[in-house]
Amino acid sequence: MKKIKNLLIKKNKTKIVCLTAYSKNIAQEIDNFVDIILVGDSLGSVLYDFNTTRSVTLEMMINHSKSVRKGITKSLMVVDMPYNTYRNKSEALKNCKKVTKETKCDAVKLEGGNKKIVEIIKHLIKNKIPVMGHIGLLPQNEKGKFTFKGKSSKEKLRLLNEAKVLERAGVFAIVLECVEKKLSKEITDQIKIITIGIGASQHCDGQILVTDDLIGLTNSKIKFVKEFGNVRKTIRDAVKKYKTEVKSLKYPSKKYLY
Which pTM does this prediction carry? Predict the structure, then answer.
């Protein structure tokens, strides 16, 4: 696929910019500034206030992805496969085909780098479904308090091995979530495909954030989140002005009447 090839060319040349989107309106506004738009299962916590991404369903992902697709003209569109939708090869292929057909996305993303997941990924790629990998902190499988990965030598070796195995399996990119900075650099240096960091390091080939966090809609307390805007204030100011004009009969004025 041309879009994926163009991304791979950027490794070691220029940083890759990625953000999430869950609707057409947001996708439309970020499309010209990013390389990848991910319809993340993070929508579970961001939009539905779920305690875990495990509650996100396939239909939720498909419905939001259909909306996002309408706002994209340039970026590569990737869709998260939600929990319990790729437990084996046949289930994964069936659900990934459904997602790609109904949403017209460019690729899907699966969490994990163990042997079972790798075999499933190989099966999907063999059936012409592009896959993005995801290692480090795995929200679909994490229990208890989230902590960064790569503390111990054993864990570092495992993650480095997972990245290499995923590369051999055929993924075009790997998300490194909450991976220790030196390990993030080591992984990025040792594989030819692109790495996308979230809570990893500037040494990754690209970065991704949840757009709602970036624009200040969520009041996120996550360590790696930086707010680059304050949309909450913009919304409050607009609604306050609207309320004032409605109560004072300034709106709707003659200009807005038939």
Answer: 0.96
